[in-house]
Amino acid sequence: MFFLRQQRPQGMTAAEAIAQSDEGAITVIDVREHGEVANSGKAKGAIHIPLMRLRDMADPRHPDFIAELKDCGPIAVYCASGARSHSAAMMLQQMGYDEVHNIGGLAHWVQAGGALEQG
């Protein structure tokens, strides 16, 4: 029987994202669903945008655009395991956001010493 270990995506580590977030040098986006955030909280300082709403809320032309994303610089995205955040990173890059990093799942953030807050 084979056991699959959850692998963190390559690129910026959660620890690097935490350090940059603490310095205000990166925007962190949680792309999980509302219920997931309500159950477990979110990374401290993260913006919660469910993946299904990301295209609208990250588009400056859309009425639901999140103002914190205007000229935000580097972005780190995460979900529960890293799969949805991979899709989110690709979507943001296609939309013209230059530096987007998939840091995996919320567990990666916590394991790297990142603080949580209620969503």
TrEMBL record:
Could you name the domain of life of the organism this protein comes from?
Bacteria
Please state every residue range assigned to the domain named Rhodanese. 22-118
Enumerate the PANTHER family for this protein.
FAD-DEPENDENT OXIDOREDUCTASE (PTHR43031), OXIDOREDUCTASE (PTHR43031:SF16)
Name of the molecule in the record = Sulfurtransferase
What species is this protein from?
Thalassovita aquimarina
